[in-house]
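Memo to structure team: turn this sequence into structure tokens by end of day. - J.P.
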Amino acid sequence: MSTTKLEQALISKLNALRERGSLKDPEMIITGLKPAKNGNGPRYLIDGYGEKEFLRMNSNSYLGLSSNEEIIKAEEAAAKTYGTGPGAVRFISGTYRPHIELEKKLAAFHHRESAMIFSSAYAAVMGVIAPLIEDDTIVISDELNHNCIINAIRLSRPKNKAVYNHLDMADLEGKMNSALGEGNRVLIVTDGIFSMRGDYAPLDRISEIASKYDAKFAGGVNVLVDDSHGVGAFGKTGRGTEEFTRAKGIDMIVATLGKSLGVNGGYLVTNSTVINYLRQTAPFYIYSNPITPSEASAAIKALEILDSDRGRQLLENLRRLTARFEKGLVALGYEIIASEHPVVPLMIRNTERTSELVRYLTENGILATGLNYPVVPKGDEEIRFQVSADHTDADIDYALGVLKKFKENN
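Reply from structure team:
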């Protein structure tokens, strides 16, 4: 059979994306990494730019652990011991000792009974939400939740779903009131850190609302948080938004190994009964290979570093650099959404000017993410900078200097 008709249909869809302005640019290909030297942090080489070096301020590797020598050695040693891949899904013969050790350490780190790892945090959210939702479950979700949460809820087909205004606790409580008598159980789902803006969910208030209404539903009220951008980057010891807000009563936390911990994969921490149930019912766990044993070993080492004095020093340096960058942007007259989190949104509020600034940054050796309509609403266009603990004061000052010149010349 010919794919000509399919190709024509797909070309039409691609053209529609282009007309809406949501067609993504070609992916930049990183061809090399130059270690930190002379007071500067690491620099990256990009395909098509020759030996031009780039300061990377669009990475989720908030602690710079992806190039840590101890973690690399741990991964190499495990690959020599166990091979490069798991060879099967876990319930057949794909579970290795590093998988079990990592799950125990993740549970202990989050002060939970149990943990399970997935191939990614996206897979974790998709794999966890659907099995926990039954035909009498009501789901209540923040309007700016990540795409994985939105798709997981669609896949789950709850009895009803409600979306509350971003971070609006009065609206959340209103949605809880409206749910009374409609279903047996309520699941509140939220991001911990909202990655586009760097702001955070008030998990203390959310857990209080959940507790207030728990007895009013026969199946109770549970809270699930995707804190992929929070764990390892937020809170005094890197335990994320739960720690920062001092929340009690968060039932389930999903997070990633692929951001602050610098490796690959996702995970869930909660009580042992929920974990035991999901090992039997979560399709993204049952039917997908796990991360490799070597990745699990690298994640164990990364978690050990995070949960140590060195980790707390990295976190303190990350907060200091973030504050330095935010203070410098404000002094230059830029609008930002301030937070202790290392996502620093520079609000441009104009699509053309956002694209212009991204080009200028690239020309001057800085990688940052431009977010334009329709990815964000009109008027909310921004440049998303992401600070890392392996940046230096000189890196931050260089970026501020480039932004100063742009403002002076425009």
